[in-house]
Design goal:
The chain has 14 helices and eleven strands. The model has no long low-confidence stretch (mean pLDDT 94). The longest helix has 25 residues. The strands form three sheets. The chain has a seven-stranded mixed β-sheet with strand order 5-4-3-6-7-11-10, sandwiched between helices. Helix 4 packs across helix 9 and helix 12 packs across helix 14. The protein folds into two domains: 47 residues, no CATH class; 177 residues, Vaccinia Virus protein VP39 (Rossmann fold, 3-Layer(aba) Sandwich), CATH 3.40.50.150. It is an alpha/beta fold. Helix content is 46%, strand content 18%. The structure holds S-adenosylmethionine. S-adenosylmethionine (SAM) binds next to helix 9. It comes from Gossypium davidsonii.
């Protein structure tokens, strides 16, 4: 689009918009391209395609969550968190933890679900392409903290022999779009996890400290067959990645956990082995995929 087309569409001041576009071109969010001999237009780049609302790999919902005032406020309390062991920055800013806040604010809950779903679309594609064998022989899979079910619906579509159970807090499950072949169960993973051949966790355990993870994983042990059951954890594994860019994302997410959760954190392989071992899982395999997460398979 030319500057004048953009100005008309956005109903804004051309000179100010020009300054913003000049900055965004410098930042490679747009690029300038000739439209006719005399006019220049602005075109999308690979980066801005990810910010557009459309397309399989759109990260727009994640950006909307991360830049919302509710999500930004806790960052201002991060220094207090480092200096003393009081409430988490999220609780200091909003008076309650992130999940209770989401329960009372459906608009924010929807932002979280949609943001996680856009990451899930990318990560699950990487799992399906990189490690399909992880799902061999699994007839039923419970996605613990499965959000709006995006990950599970992709997995069940790809591996149709699997029955899927999307398990999350009742207010999340109540508004999740319903998909054939998936059962939706509301509950609390600290109390009970629905029974299945395997339990799947993506971006859930990093929200909790070691003690809490051990408690959740013990509930999973009760839910899966004692002889051949397994848990599949899709999370970052710090210090394992040779790729600098992804290592940065893992370390950045660790800061996000400090700002937004009470005691959550990203873990090294040694830390994952500790929580899994304490919960009674003895055999552990780690598989890298083409994403910031790795797949950790753990067997009783
Ligand atoms: C960071 S999101 C991950 C969502 C999804 N697994 C994904 O990667 O797209 C964490 C999820 O854990 C859920 N959750 C938090 N506390 C829970 C609890 N006590 N029992 C079950 N689910 C819980 C949240 O509602 C949220 O959907």
């Amino acid at each position: 689009m030319t500057l004048s087309q953009l100005t008309t569409t956005l109903k804004c001041q051309p000179s100010r918009l020009y300054r913003i576009m000049r900055f965004l071109v410098h930042y490679q969010i747009f690029k300038e391209e000739p439209i006719t001999k005399d006019s220049i237009g602005f075109a999308l780049t690979p980066l801005s395609r990810r910010l557009s609302r459309h397309g399989e790999r759109s990260m727009a919902a994640m950006i909307l969550l991360q830049s919302s005032p509710v999500t930004l406020a806790p960052w201002h309390g991060l220094s207090a968190r480092v200096l003393d062991s009081g409430n988490s920055p999220f609780e200091t800013a909003h008076g309650k933890d992130v999940w209770s806040y989401a329960e009372e604010n459906p608009g924010h809950s929807k932002l979280i679900d949609e943001a996680m779903a856009c990451d899930a679309r990318v990560a699950v594609r990487a799992i399906i392409e990189g490690c399909p064998q992880v799902f061999d022989g699994i007839k039923s899979l419970v996605d613990v903290g499965g959000g709006n079910g995006t990950a599970l619906s992709m997995l069940v579509k790809e591996f149709p022999w699997m029955h899927g159970i999307n398990f999350d807090l009742p207010h999340v499950v109540a508004v999740a779009p319903k998909v054939d072949g998936i059962e939706y169960v509301g509950g609390d993973m600290f109390e009970c996890v629905p029974k299945a051949d395997a339990a799947f966790f993506m971006w859930v355990l990093h929200d909790w400290d070691d003690e809490e993870c051990i408690q959740i994983l013990k509930k999973c042990r009760e839910a899966i067959p004692q002889d051949k059951g397994k848990v599949i954890i899709v999370e970052s594994v710090l210090e394992e990645d040779e790729n600098d860019k992804l290592e940065f994302v893992g370390l950045m997410l660790d800061m996000v956990m400090m700002a937004h959760t009470n005691k959550g954190k990203e873990r090294t392989l040694k830390e994952w082995k500790y929580v899994l071992g304490e919960a009674g899982f003895t055999r552990i395999n780690v598989k890298p995929i083409h994403a910031v997460q790795s797949i950790i398979e753990a067997y009783i």
